[in-house]
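Minutes, structural biology subgroup

Action item carried over from last meeting: produce the structure token record for Serine/threonine protein kinase (Streptomyces pristinaespiralis). EB confirmed the sequence was re-checked against the source entry. Recorded below for completeness.
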Amino acid sequence: MLMLQDREDRADPSIEVVGTPEGDAKASTSPSPTPPPPAPSTTPATTASPGATGPSPGADPVLPAGFVLKQDPAGFTVGVMEGWSRRQAGSQVFYEAPTGGDYIQIGIVKNTPMSSYDNFTGLEQKHLAKAGSDYERLRLEENTYQGRPGALWEFTHVPEPEESDLRRHVIDQAFVAADGTEYAILAAGRADMWDPAKDVVFSTAVGTFKVG
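Output recorded by EB:
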């Protein structure tokens, strides 16, 4: 959606993917202390097509084996892996793998003043300015999600270069709903475990996400 905007209530992947989702909330906040690097995860990799449009109206989404549909109290539905735990920090909702290595993050920003693409391009500048992050853009492009203007951002970086050289892969689909609320659907995990051909985590999230 990661991830600059220093305004509160803005989804910011440059924060929560800088090390760990622990304590992350919005832009203009500082990441909390990073726990020890997670062990390699056995959860599936995460990526998605920019053409993903979400669930068809009125249709029950078909979930891959090992996934459950969560009706989240923050006001959305999304498919996540069984056993992943929910945590909320402000307007950011996380579903985290038991290993601590992978997670889904849903960011909600009401009355956003800019497009998702403009937000991402601004957030990217923070990554480029961070010493030692070794940021590498894989793609950053405007798209349409569920009939609404959106953007897809995919990159790798080293979240905490002063602590570890562990490289993280991040992919974030954002869009602005008709009421002016921006939703960001982000998946992050170890870059060395990511395989786009085997993705089910992010593709399931963007394929099942529904407001309400």
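Discussion: Residues 130 and 193 are 24 Å apart (CA to CA).
Next step: EB to file the record with the rest of the batch.
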